[in-house]
Amino acid sequence: MSHLSRTLPIKRAAHVYLVHEGQLLLVEERMDDGSIFYGLPGGKAHAGETLGDAAVRQVLVETGLHVTDLMFVSLIEGELLTGTRNECYANFGRFTASFSGDLAPTDPEVVGVKWVPFGQVEALVRYGPPPEVEERNPLIWVPTRDFVRGQPRAYYPI
What we know:
By secondary structure, the chain is an alpha+beta fold. The protein is built from three helices and nine strands; from the N terminus they run βββββαβββααβ. The strands form two sheets. Strands 5-1-7-6-9 form a five-stranded mixed beta sheet, with helices on both faces. Strands 2, 3, 4 and 8 form a four-stranded antiparallel beta sheet that branches. The longest helix is centred in the middle third of the chain and has 13 residues, at 51-63. The chain is globular and about 50 Å long.
């Protein structure tokens, strides 16, 4: 049997757990089907951009907050969305950070920013269609669940 190799596009992204008095900052985004999705502030890294720089840039546009002193928490890595048009190799960093400023998102996709008590974070997670939306993949939320429970791991293979 011959070995068939394939090359997957790599998606690199960084998200930040911003914590204040037992609450986690989540952004509210409107999905294509009109529903509201809650997620961590952060997003895709540009070509040549470090995950840390992507985290700082994305948090600023999505929340208005300036983050400093990034501390690594977790890396999520592996093949994501296999069999869909968005199949990719994911390399997602999760950080905590200090922050300053006022909540004032400028990203047009963000419809709100909300401090959510740790105990209520998991209730906001929605899984399911459409399958190409990677943020609705349960594997993406496992590290957040562990973080709010005080049990983050450093590495999450997908």
